[in-house]
TrEMBL record:
Residues 266-316 form the HAMP domain. The gene is rstB. Residues 324-539 form the Histidine kinase domain. The chain crosses the membrane at residues 6-29, 243-263. It catalyses: ATP + protein L-histidine = ADP + protein N-phospho-L-histidine. InterPro entries: 2C_sensor_his_kinase, HAMP_dom, HATPase_C_sf, HATPase_dom, His_kinase_dom, HisK_dim/P_dom, HisK_dim/P_sf, Sig_transdc_His_kin-like_C. Pfam families: HAMP (PF00672), HATPase_c (PF02518), HisKA (PF00512). This is histidine kinase. Keywords: ATP-binding, Cell membrane, Kinase, Membrane, Nucleotide-binding, Phosphoprotein, Transferase, Transmembrane, Transmembrane helix. It comes from Acinetobacter stercoris. It is a multi-pass membrane protein. Its main location: membrane.
Length: 553
């Protein structure tokens, strides 16, 4: 069933597409977050890199530099190495960062270790190499508490100009640094006590904005009433609003592309059907659609092809009907014209009466033919107005038998006994026409006996009427053709026996509109033809039971 439904394939494709886009989005978020985390780590260390580079550069001798580095290592509780620059291979991006006095951070995710490489001002032959174990949860606090000490160590060389030089180094920091009044900061007594004991204070703030939680570091200064404030520094947010919005929009764009890819094949097939219908409107019925697969679009293409075939058959049938009608009308019209000419040339009264009777018979034949044509056309052109009702089947069969007996046909009409409680749903007028046409056809070709029967099949619930005769029967190869309009198996014999070849085609159309069918075979008892029409005894019963009835009747 899955491969037969284009909509199920589209739904399944959408599910797969959503899963793929979700996986793509997840991987994209991981890649972007890895890059963001790298940039975040570098931005936090850029300020330290600049301050440390300046501080090391101030040391005049190598020993002083090594002593300063040792003190910094103790302060950060991290190993710091003074190494030759030719021992470190740098990429172009890393070289650019060193030249800009920024830090290089190399992070080993498997071991959870970060390596920081810091350039030294006026000393391109050496780097500061710092190893950081990021598994140590206290590393962040130590780094932030140590940072004000490096900044204050830098400012000590510019007494009275601290704020001016803070502005100069601000460009190297990704977060604000400033000197503020201690009274302007909302500190509790414990935090003020820490400042008085020369300890840095870390402040955490939760913000309702997209920046989320921030951290600030406050450190005391030698200037009375003043403190150095670093921050607020936003904590790393794994899914900020802009990233979430960007990934969502990208995912929706990919979904739209995927949906477009799923819909395009169906749209193309619909366009082909539309093109074929436009061709049909111009009267060109030669175009046929390619049927690909077993889904709904293939069914639509197949239905269009069948409809085109049917319309072509109807047009051909209409043309054949017009030719047959003109042929059938020509004979009685010619006889009437001939009779009128004879009346004009004949003076004998009795002969003139005889000609009038013949003309009257031809006019009656014309009326009968026109009535047959109108009935056939009404049934052929579309769904007729059918007024289904509950009918006692034996009443219709006995009515046709009595009407046939009244015609003095000299034939033996047998009505198989049928219970009066056999009730079927049918249009009485058309059901009467079916039985009448079948019996009339049997009368014309039988030797002596015609049998009428009917009922409801017990197993399938299908109603049926059956008319048999003891005539010559119908050859098996002609049993389908006899239901075509104006079809005659033996033209000369049919004309001799009367009829226009429309009776059985009318029966066939009535059977169709009843939801049943008409068939013909050999009568097992009488030896002639046996015509059987079946239809649902109840109007809304399932039509699928008709196949069982065909096997049993």
């Amino acid at each position: 069933m899955f491969k037969h439904s284009i909509f199920l394939r589209i739904y399944a494709g959408l599910v797969i597409l959503v899963v793929l886009v979700a996986m793509f989005g997840y991987l994209l978020v991981q890649i972007i977050n890895y890059q963001r985390a790298q940039e975040y780590r570098e931005s936090l260390t850029d300020g330290i890199s600049y301050v440390m580079s300046e501080s090391v550069a101030r040391q005049k001798t190598l020993q002083q530099k090594m002593d300063w580095i040792s003190d910094a290592s103790d302060l950060l509780e991290l190993p710091i190495y003074y190494i030759d620059s030719n021992k470190v291979e740098l990429s172009r991006t890393e070289e650019r960062r060193i030249n800009d006095q920024k830090a290089i951070v190399r992070y080993d995710a498997e071991q959870g270790v970060a390596y920081m490489i810091l350039g030294i001002k006026n000393d391109p032959k050496h780097y500061l190499y710092v190893k950081v174990d990021s598994k140590d949860s206290k590393f962040g606090q130590r780094q932030m508490k140590a940072l004000p000490i490096f900044v204050l160590d830098y400012l000590v060389y510019y007494p009275g100009q601290e704020e001016e030089y803070l502005e100069k180094i601000q460009e190297h920091f990704s977060y604000p640094i400033s000197i503020e009044n201690v009274s302007d900061i909302n500190l509790d007594s414990e935090q003020i006590g820490q400042l008085r004991s020369d300890q840095s204070v870390i402040l955490y703030r939760d913000s309702a904005s997209m920046h989320g939680t921030t951290i600030s570091v406050v450190s005391s200064m030698s200037i009375p009433g003043k403190v150095l404030v670093l921050g607020p520094v936003p904590m790393f947010n794994w899914m900020p609003f802009k990233l979430a919005a960007g990934i969502t929009l990208l995912s929706m764009f990919l979904l739209c592309l995927g949906v477009y890819g799923l819909i395009v094949p169906m749209q193309r097939k619909i366009r082909q059907v539309n093109h074929a219908l436009n061709r049909m409107k111009t009267g060109d019925l030669s175009l046929r659609l390619h049927v690909d697969g077993n889904d709904e679009m293939a069914t639509l293409a197949s239905s269009y092809n069948n409809m085109s075939d049917h319309i072509q058959r109807l047009i051909e049938a209409q043309r054949e009907l017009m030719r047959a009608v003109s042929h059938e009308l020509r004979t009685p019209v010619a006889r009437i014209r001939f009779g009128m000419e004879m009346l004009a040339d004949e003076d004998e009264y009795e002969y003139r009466l005889q000609q009038v009777e013949m003309i009257d018979k031809d006019i009656e034949a014309l009326n009968t033919l026109i009535d047959e044509i109108m009935t056939y056309a009404k049934l052929e052109q579309g769904t007729p107005s059918l007024d289904f009702e509950e009918i006692v089947l034996v009443d219709v069969l006995s009515q046709v038998a009595n009407e046939t007996e009244a015609l003095k046909t000299q034939k033996n009409i047998q009505l198989v006994p049928l219970a009066a409680n056999v009730i079927v749903d049918a249009e009485r007028r058309y059901l009467h026409r079916v039985v009448q046409n079948l019996v009339g056809n049997a009368i014309r070709y039988c030797e002596d006996k015609v049998r009428i029967s009917g009922g409801i099949h017990a197993e399938t619930g299908m109603a049926y009427v059956c008319v048999e005769d003891d005539g010559p029967g119908i050859p098996e190869e002609d049993r389908t053709r006899i239901f075509e309009a104006f079809a005659r198996l033996d033209d000369s014999r049919t004309r001799a026996s009367g009829g226009y070849g429309l009776g059985l085609s009318i029966v066939s159309r009535i059977a169709y509109w009843f939801g049943g069918q008409i068939s013909v075979d050999a009568s097992p008892e009488l030896g002639g033809a046996r015509f059987t029409m079946i239809w649902p005894s109840k109007r809304f019963k399932a039509k699928k039971k008709s196949s069982k009835l065909r096997e049993n009747i």
